[in-house]
Amino acid sequence: MKKSLLLSRRSIRRYLPDAVPDELIERLLTAATYAPSAHNRQPWRFVVMTGAETKQRLALAMGQQLRADLQDDQTPDHIIAQDVARSYQRITKAPLLILLCLTMADMDSYPDPMRQQHEWLMAVQSTAMAGQNLLLAAHEAGLGACWMCAPLFCPAVVRQTLALPEDWQPQALITLGYPAETKTKTRHPLSNHVFYR
After folding, report:
1. For residue 127, how far is the Cα from the chain centroid?
2. d(Cα 155, Cα 162) in Å, to the nearest integer?
């Protein structure tokens, strides 16, 4: 029996060098925008990167911040070098990068911090659902993809490097391409995660 799209998706980090066609990129982005969103405000924003120079510039800037953070943590130099090199390779070797951002521009605004925090969290959830749609659409199209949370640790660096609008908040960097590896996936038993009441 054929596995469902949901159950067969894997996080793929190694890709063939083949470019992803523009029409396919547009299909992925369109699928992403059909995710549900709070108040239907669609707070997601996307930055598409295919050029080697842009990917390298982003990887170097993010790597510099990663190195500084790890040095502050007093991480051994050889571990820092490994982590920075791994991050650089993941970003520069992917044929396609899509930076997933959110904006609060169209979300509701509240005078009290608690409701405003909830509104921001709804924008985060909405944007994450758009990202999941994108991952599933990529898998359906025969692409591999991987969600990198690294932009959360250096949003100002990412925003400045890519000259993004000030209100675009980087949430994730999705690497994409035709897979050069296969992966298996394990999951904890459902009973470990569910209460029935």
Report:
1. 10
2. 11
Euclidean distance between CA atoms 155 and 168, whole angstroms? 9
Q: What is the pLDDT of residues 10-54, one digit of tens each?
A: 999 999 999 999 999 999 999 999 999 999 999 999 999 999 999
CA distances to 5, 10, 18, 135, 195 from 186, in Å: 16, 10, 29, 18, 21
- Residue position matching structure tokens 């996307």: 46
Report pLDDT digits (tens) over 171-187. Answer: 999 999 999 999 888 99
Would you list the domain boundaries of the chain?
A: 5-181
Please name the residues in contact with 58: beta carbons below 8 A apart, sequence gap of 6 or more: 49, 91, 97, 158, 161, 162
The CATH number given to 5-181 is 3.40.109.10
The angle formed by the CA atoms of residues 131, 133 and 138, to the nearest 5 degrees, is 95
Q: Is the pTM of this model over 0.85?
A: yes
